[in-house]
Design a protein that fits this description.
This protein is mainly β. Helices cover 0% and strands 44% of the residues.
Amino acid sequence: TYTLTFTHYFLENRYKELYLVDLLNNKKINIYANGSQYTFTAQKSPELVKRFELISEDYPPVIIPENNVGTVIDVEGTRFNDKLSIYSVPECTRNYDSNWDTYKTFYTSLKPQLYAMEEDGNYQVDGVNDLNNTYLGFLPGEDITYTLKFTNYNLNTRYQKLYLVDLVEHKTIDIYATGTEYTFVAEQSNNPVKRF
């Protein structure tokens, strides 16, 4: 029998929750509290075993849109909406960048879900080195008709044009001007699609 004891330093500055997953016993234990413990049994073995995984729920990064180059996209239905922020940051990548990115969390099926699709996951806030060729996924909520509203920040410092391509309707929309809106139809579905 073994006991793990967790001592945290400044955890609250970055994470909302922290969990330990016991992969052999299929248990998920909240270890956010300093001094949390987990007791388990293990048999002696000459082989290394992948036994535990840490899973965190991060606070979203604090990003001031006015100080950056990017676009904030609101998708609006009749009662529910969602928001996606994409920023052009030279040092960012198409994978998780800890000072910029927030993974997408999917909520109620009544709410539309808009997110950036990257190689290692889906993002609610996505810092990339170039806005070009960023794919957007969409999962409809309770409505059929939705409107995207674009609030752009400092695009003119890096881009001369910015377009949205609707991959379902085969339309190209100029979204360079802040305040641009695009209304589209999406049938109710439980399957997200690469829409833009």
